[in-house]
Design a protein that fits this description.
Leucine-rich repeat, LRR (right-handed beta-alpha superhelix); alpha/beta; 11 helices; 12% strand; two-stranded antiparallel sheet; 5-stranded parallel beta sheet
Length: 296
């Protein structure tokens, strides 16, 4: 056996060297001692091949996980920024039929930007940080002009009044597209909450992605309950788990899980070592799927 036969790559230098030695000793007289030595060289070669193969496989897994973390980070950035852009778009649409002037110094800054991206080797989702947030004057503008949905307006009042030290938040009724988007804007300010419940919200995939991208900032979250008929949104949720390393209780009832969502959840659970209670309900969760999830 050689590395190239095992993995389809060029043999490493060590393998080529030992193969060369094996050829050189073929002409040595076949005494019992010589045969034993040849066998030991062959064993050494086989051990080296198995060692090289395992190292390359483990390295491939590491590369795969880094690629997965990169994919999830980029996906989260996409929906996080899109939510802010759509909020600004809604303001522009409001201004079409309003006499209110947006270009007033009193509402600036509209947006604040933070980022600290480092070339980390392991959990880049947890260790790299960025945040796009609206300035307080603009949040006040949204409130004053009644641009906030009734479901989230109390949260914005809490932000503006610096009353953000809540331990628990629960949303148990339907959320409109505007409510879900605005909730994703508000949640990062409540980064001390330990428990979050989202049930019966009737979220579309895009709105679910808006919300889940904001979970990245909930560093103290230990209990999460989600019961909504969403599918692809679960993949982005899984990509936030590496940041939620303190998560202890997780309840997910999201209808039919796609194969992509199951794969993402399997990877994500390796980053949540503190989970004590896990409930996952789905219409297509076979025993094999559950086994893969448990191995994660």
């Amino acid at each position: 056996p050689t590395c190239d036969k095992k993995l389809g790559n060029t043999p490493c230098g060590g393998c080529r060297g030992i193969l060369s030695i094996l050829k050189e000793v073929e002409s040595v007289p076949g005494t019992s001692l010589a045969q034993s030595i040849k066998q030991e060289i062959l064993k050494l070669h086989k051990f080296q091949v198995s060692l090289c193969t395992e190292v390359k496989k483990k390295a491939s897994i590491m590369i795969s996980e880094i690629n997965w973390q990169t994919e999830k980070t980029l996906q989260r950035i996409e929906f996080d920024c899109l939510a802010k852009a759509e909020e600004l778009k809604s303001v522009l649409e409001f201004l079409k039929s309003s006499s209110v002037q947006l270009f007033n110094k009193s509402i600036y800054p509209l947006l604040r930007f933070e980022k600290d991206i480092q070339p980390v080797k392991f959990n880049l989702i947890k260790l790299n940080h960025y945040r796009v947030s609206f300035g307080f004057p603009f949040l006040k503008f949204l409130e004053t002009c009644n641009l906030l949905s009734s479901r989230v307006k109390p949260l914005f009042s809490g932000i503006l009044g610096n009353e953000i030290d809540k331990d628990e938040l629960a949303f148990n009724r339907k959320l409109t597209a505007d409510s879900a988007r605005q909730l994703s804007v508000a949640l990062p300010y409540f980064n001390q909450i330990a428990s979050l419940t989202l049930t019966s919200n009737m979220l579309a995939t895009k709105e679910a992605n808006f919300l889940f991208s904001s979970f990245f900032h909930l560093k103290n979250l230990s209990k999460l309950k989600i019961s909504n008929e969403i599918t692809e949104g679960v993949s982005l949720l899984a990509g936030v788990f590496p940041k939620l390393s303190g998560l202890k209780t997780l309840y997910l009832n999201c209808g039919e899980f796609s194969s992509k969502a199951l794969s993402d959840l399997t990877l994500a659970f390796s980053y949540t070592p503190e989970i004590e209670s896990l409930s996952i309900l789905g219409t297509n969760l076979s025993s094999n799927s559950m086994k893969k999830l448990s191995l994660g």
